[in-house]
TrEMBL record:
Organism name: Actinomyces naeslundii
Keyword Nucleotide-binding: yes
Catalytic activity: 4-CDP-2-C-methyl-D-erythritol + ATP = 4-CDP-2-C-methyl-D-erythritol 2-phosphate + ADP + H(+)
The protein's name in its UniProt record: 4-diphosphocytidyl-2-C-methyl-D-erythritol kinase
Listed EC numbers: 2.7.1.148
Residue numbers spanned by region Disordered: 1-32
Domain GHMP kinase C-terminal, chain residue ranges per copy: 237-310
Keyword Transferase set for record: yes
InterPro entries, A to Z: GHMP_kinase_C_dom, GHMP_kinase_C_sf, GHMP_kinase_N_dom, IspE, Ribosomal_Su5_D2-typ_SF, Ribsml_uS5_D2-typ_fold_subgr
Catalytic site: 38, 169
Family note: Belongs to the GHMP kinase family. IspE subfamily.
Gene3D superfamilies per UniProt: 3.30.230.10, GHMP kinase, C-terminal domain
NCBIfam families, per the entry: ispE, PRK03188.1
């Protein structure tokens, strides 16, 4: 249990009072950190273990949809709490202790013995519950921001170990770029890639629950659960060559059938994107976001237009990839 208290809704304009800093504290009164969302280029899922988690082999790519967490030193009266304020208050995101960014701050405080607390301000750009690890990016950003604000200075391997306790997808946005994930997806090994890739993301009105998609995967595969596959050589070769067409041929997501079973209309979204010239469109992670890989910015524009005109999607975002992991920007 952390000795910090989560306070549901943060003050609208938290004050910065560096006089309340503990002796080990960093010198800044606020630290701003950016962390990226992700798409899974490859996702092979095995049979669940006794803890309910599924072993994975995946390839993550960090995309330029960027979450921003600003960690601010607290005024004396808030001292010892963790508050979270949303930059856009209508975002459908909790601000209490169920928010992964709040949990991240509390976990880091507990692990390092910090007692001073923090006010977090969150700007969201990754779709909520969209299969793009936006909440995980928030947690990764909060870890890095508080680590700097509090002057705790944990190195990346230790932050990654804390991140894995928060959720399987939290370590990757610390590293960013392109990486193989194994274990629950939390053991991250960067891989070499060349070039830039262009994505169009089709957003759904309502999110999908990750556990529900994994459950449907289990139901669909039943006793005949497929053996986990290694990352195909063709995929790593395409990434090394910077060859988007070859990468498109290798994109593969074991959770796609489960997500389409829960949301059959997503198959139409994939068809619209591919008919408009996407090299390939797939479900992103556990969905319901559809990720369309396109050749160039011109094609991105055509695919975006077609998706918007289809009336099937709640929104469309464009992003290039890969981008770096969580980093201090101010
Ligand atoms: O780790 P995280 O809290 O993000 O996972 C959310 C849920 O997704 C888990 O409770 C589990 O149901 C499912 N999951 C899984 N296997 C994984 C990752 C997530 O079954 N490797």
């Amino acid at each position: 249990m952390s000795h910090l208290r989560a306070v549901p809704s943060g003050p609208t304009n938290p004050s910065c009072d560096s006089s309340s800093a503990s002796p080990r504290s960093g010198s800044a009164s606020s630290v701003r950190v950016e962390a990226p969302g992700k798409v899974n280029l490859f996702l092979s899922v095995g049979a669940p273990g006794p803890d309910g988690y599924h072993p994975l082999t995946t390839v993550f790519q960090a995309v330029r949809l960027i979450e921003t967490v600003t960690a601010r030193r607290q005024s004396a009266q808030d001292h010892g709490t963790v508050t979270l304020t949303l930059e856009e208050p209508d975002a459908d995101v909790p601000t209490d202790a169920s928010n992964l960014a709040v949990q991240a701050a509390m976990l880091l405080a507990e692990a390092t013995g910090v007692g001073e607390g923090v006010d977090l301000l969150l700007r969201k750009r990754v779709p909520v519950a969209g299969g793009m690890a936006g909440g995980s990016a928030d947690a990764a950003a909060a870890l890095v921001a508080c680590n700097a604000l509090w002057g705790t200075g944990l190195p990346l391997p230790e932050l990654s170990a804390l991140a894995a306790r928060l959720g399987a997808d939290v370590p990757f946005p610390l590293t960013g770029a392109t990486a193989v994930g194994s274990g629950r997806g939390d053991l991250v090994t960067p891989i070499m890639t060349r070039g830039s890739y262009h994505w169009v993301f089709a957003l759904a009105e309502d999110g999908l629950s990750t556990p529900a998609v994994f459950r449907r995967f289990d139901e669909l595969t039943g006793a005949g659960q497929p053996a986990m596959r290694d990352v195909p050589e063709a995929l790593t070769a395409a990434l090394r060559a910077g060859d988007a067409r070859a990468l498109a041929d290798s994109l593969d997501n074991d959770l796609q059938a489960a997500a389409l079973d829960l949301r059959p209309e997503l198959a139409e979204v994939i068809a619209v994107a591919e008919d408009a010239g996407a090299l390939r469109a797939i479900v992103s992670g556990s969905g319901p976001t559809i990720a369309a890989l396109v050749e160039d910015p011109g094609s991105a524009q055509r695919v975006s237009r077609a998706l918007k005109a289809s009336g099937l999607v709640a929104g469309v975002l464009r992003a290039d990839a890969p981008v770096s992991g969580a980093r201090v920007v101010g």
